[in-house]
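2024-03-11 09:14:02 INFO queue: dequeued item DHA2 family efflux MFS transporter permease subunit, len=530
2024-03-11 09:14:02 INFO validating residues
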Amino acid sequence: MADNTEAAVQTGKQPRSVRVVLLALMIAMLLAMLDNMIVGTAMPTIVGDLGGLEHLSWVVTAYTLATAASTPIWGKLGDMYGRKGAFMTSIVIFLLGSALSGMAQDMGQLIGFRAIQGLGAGGLMVGVMAIIGDLIPPRERGKYQGMMAGIMALAMIAGPLVGGSITDHWGWRWSFYINLPLGIVALLAVSAVLHLPKKRVEAKIDYLGAGLLTVGISSIVLVTTWGGSEYAWGSARIMELIGIGVAALVGFVFVQTKAASPILPLHIFRNRNFTLMSVIGFITGFVMFGAVLFLPLYQQSVQGASATNSGLLLLPMLGAMLVTSMVAGRVTTSSGRYKAFPVVGSVLMSVGLFLLSQMDTGTSRLTSGLYMAVLGLGMGCLMQITMLVAQNSVEMKDMGVASSSTTLFRTLGSSFGVAIMGALFNHRVQDVMAERAGALGSQMTERSAQLDAASLAKLPAAAREAYQFAVSSGTHSAFLLGSVVAVGALVAAVFVKEVPLRGAGAPAKPAEADAAANDAPPKETLAETV
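2024-03-11 09:14:37 INFO prediction written
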C-alpha cells in the first residue's frame, strides 16, 4: 500500500485502495450527518412509546453536547497515536451507542445511550477530514469537495424522508439500527485497506486541558440550547452556565500555554489563514443551520408546503451548494488558487440572506427558491474551502487538531445561530401575534412560536393569517441578522493570504510560507506520511 500510494503521490492519481478508503470515509461522514435528521423525524413516535415528554430535548442535547465536547479530543488523539486507530475506535463507539439507543427501554436510558453515540460521532467527522488530509495533497483535495458537499446535501434531503419511512414501516428503533450495517461496512473497509503509520508519542494526554475544554464547550452549548426556551436569557441558571463556561475556557487557554502536549496547540492560531478560516467556518455554521431551521418553517406555515417532504424544500439551496462546491474544487485543483472563493462566497451568502429577509406572505415558491439558490451558491464556495485552507496552514503533525478545531468552530457557530436567530424569531412572532390577534395570539404562541401543521389548520382564518404574517416577520428579522453576520465572513475573507497549496510531494518552501502566512509550512510530505 505504501509503495502504491507513494507512486500515486508522484503521478497525482489515486490507487484503487485509496478510492475504497474514500468510499468508507464518505459512509462514515454520512452516518455522522444523517443521524440527527433521521432521529428528529422519529421523536414523536419515540415519546409515544417511551414517555418522558418533559425530557424530550435531552435526546438531542445529550448527543450534541457529547459530539461538540469530544471533537477536539479525537483530533488530538489521532495526532498522537495514529488516525486509523482513533477513527476506527470512534466508529465502534458510535455503533455501540446506536445499538444501545435502539434497545432503550425508557427515556433516561435513551438519553444516556445517545450521549455514548455522540462521543463516537465527535470522532467521525474529524477522522474523515484528517485522513483525507493525510491521503490527498491539498492541491488535489479540491476534487473531493463536491463529494463531501453531496453527502451533506443527501443527508439534509434524505434524512427526514428516510426517518419517516423507517419509523412508519419498521418502528423507531430501526432509526438507530440502520447505522449498524453501514458502519460495519465502513469499519471493515478502513481496517482492510487503510494503511497509515502507527504513532506513539511519549507525551501524556493533557487531561486537565481536556476537562476544562469539555466543561467550557458543554456550558456554551447548554446556554445556546436552553436560553430563551427552557430558561429565560437573564435567569440565574443561564448566568451560572455563562460564568462556568467563561471561567473554564480562560483556564483552558492558560493550561494550554503550559502543557507539554496541549489538546489545542495555541500556536496554530498564529497562522493568519487558519484563524481567519476558523472565523469564516463559525459564521458559515451560524448562517447555514439558521437557514435550515427557518426555511422549512416559513414554507410550511406561510406557503402551505407539506411537512412530510421538508427536506425537499431545501433542494434549491442544497443543489446550488453542491454544484458550486464541485466547481470550486475543480478550479482549486487545476489552478491551485482559492482566495476568490471565500470572498465571492461571503458576498453571495450575505446577499442571499438579505433577499430571504425580504420574503413576505405573498412571496411565491419560485421566488423563494431563487433566493435560496443564491444563498446555496455562497455556502458552496465556503463549506469545504475553509477546511482545505485550514489544513494547508498547519504542519502534518497538527492535521488532526486543525481538522477538529475547524469542525468545532462550525459546530459552535451552528449552536449560536440556532439560538440567536431562534430567539429573535420567537420574540418577533410573539410580538406580532399580540398586535394582530390580541389575547388569542398571545395564547397561541405562549409556549412556542412554532405551530405544527395540525394546529395551524384548526385556527380561525383571521388567526391563521395573523400567524402567517407573524412568521414572515420573524423570518425577516432572523435572516436580516444573518446577512449582517455574514458580512463578518467577507471581512475575514478579504484578509486571507493565498499561500500555494501543497501538491503531491511538493511542500511549500519555508521562506515562501513565512512571507505569505506568518507561519512555518508543513514539514512532512504526503510520501513521508503514507
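2024-03-11 09:14:37 INFO annotate: The chain has three domains: 15-205, 207-260, 262-499.
2024-03-11 09:14:38 INFO item closed
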